[in-house]
Design brief:
3-stranded antiparallel beta sheet; binds zinc ion; about 20% strand; alpha+beta; about 110 residues
Length: about 110
């Protein structure tokens, strides 16, 4: 069961099974199951708490569900920057840097 009406892409599944473990700390369930999804902004994996009632934030920039900390940045006016965009920018900057270095004329 999911609280999100449209299932986020990059979804996965988490199963913690302690049924064969003798020493489970008090208060922890023997078996825990939850759906997961990957935040497109930080690539963090979000475990969807089955007891959560708050709505998950869907970024209008990339049309994907993002994690709570990235959602807080978006709500505060931050831009939509997916982890792939960040990687592209990093690679482009490294390429410019390399080109600048090779064009140096050394004595
Ligand atoms: Zn995130
Ligand atoms: Zn986004």
């Amino acid at each position: 069961m999911s609280l999100i009406k449209t299932q986020p892409s990059g979804g996965g599944y988490l199963l913690l099974d302690h049924r064969n473990c003798d020493d489970v700390p008090a208060g922890l369930p023997r078996i825990f199951e939850a759906d997961t999804y990957t935040c497109t902004h930080c690539s963090g994996v979000v475990v969807m708490n089955p007891a959560r009632t708050r709505e998950r934030y869907k970024c209008r920039g990339c049309s994907h569900h993002i994690c709570d900390s990235c959602a807080a940045q978006r709500v505060a006016g931050g831009p939509c920057r997916t982890v792939m965009q960040q990687a592209d920018e990093l690679m482009a900057a490294a390429e410019r840097q390399a080109r600048a270095e090779t064009s140096l004329i050394l004595p």
